[in-house]
Specification:
about 25% strand, five-stranded mixed beta barrel, 9 strands, globular, 6 helices, Rossmann fold, alpha/beta
């Protein structure tokens, strides 16, 4: 049975054979946020099903392509469609693309997601730059055999979101009069949305937003010593209880798509500053 190192090597070799350049920036696009790809000067695309050991995205609004191109003049590799624990994948499968992007040469990882917000200061369509997280998943992508070539057995998590990128991202938002917060993201398994009591609990333990992704990828990025910038589109508000509205996945996608141009401005300008 192939180990993780062998799979990473095989997948990296396969992608490099068709890659037009060594990417500097990796981008993972979340629910309803795949249209950022329209801003990329695309050189080549690779459907996930053609890449060995890559999972397939099963979620609507996640199209399932690896894209090489230029954004703000920088060589980027973008995942149009990500993987989630709730789809039935292991945490190692969910985070496998981050391992591969690191081997391909990226030096910074950008992540976007759709999230439920908490607090009267949060509104639908706002953005939130992550400055910390709370991991509420029942599994961890770093569990099991550790390969020193990939990172340390016990990675430090005290500063996983790049402070310089956070400050610059907030500055760009202010410049463009975009409502953007900085806060703590809680990651849960899903796929159900939260109950009123769960939203209250998450607010009580210090979360400002909640979603079903991002933290697994961030754990692997931290293990790989990759600086991370992560941003959420707030698609609904779950606390205080009187602000909760009935939400469908269609609602989430619609709000994310409407807010996407604002997120795109921040990501594009931030990448241009690297």
């Amino acid at each position: 049975m192939e180990n993780l190192l062998e799979k990473i090597h095989q997948t990296t070799q396969h992608i490099q054979a068709g890659a037009p350049f060594t990417p500097q920036v990796g981008i993972i696009l979340g629910t309803g946020l795949g249209n950022l790809v329209g801003e990329i000067d695309i050189i080549t695309e690779m459907p996930y099903h053609t890449i060995p050991h890559f999972p397939l995205s099963t979620v609507e609004s996640h199209s399932g392509k690896l894209i090489f191109g230029y954004l703000s003049g920088k060589p980027v590799i973008a995942m149009q469609g990500r993987f989630h624990y709730y789809e039935g994948y292991s945490m190692q499968q969910v985070t496998f693309p981050v391992r591969v992007m690191k081997q391909l040469g990226i030096t910074t990882l950008f992540i976007s997601n759709a999230a439920g917000g908490m607090g009267n200061h949060m509104n639908k369509g706002d953005l939130m730059i992550l400055n910390d997280h709370i991991n509420l998943h029942p599994d961890n992508p770093l569990r099991g055999k550790n390969y020193p070539e990939l990172g340390p057995r016990f990675p430090d998590m005290s500063n996983v979101y790049d402070q310089n990128l956070i400050e610059k991202g907030l500055e760009i938002a202010r410049k463009h009069h975009i409502r953007c917060h900085a806060g703590v993201y809680a990651s849960v398994p899903g796929p159900n949305l939260e109950t009123k009591a769960e939203y209250a609990y998450l607010n009580h333990i210090g979360a400002n937003a909640v979603g079903m992704s991002t933290v697994p990828e961030v754990l692997v990025a931290a293990h790989s010593n990759l600086p991370v910038f992560a941003i959420s589109v707030i698609t609904d508000v779950g606390y205080p209880p009187e602000r909760i509205e009935y939400v469908t996945v269609e609602d989430v996608i619609a709000v994310a798509k409407a807010a996407e141009p604002k997120m795109t401005i921040i990501i594009k300008e931030l990448i241009g500053l690297l």
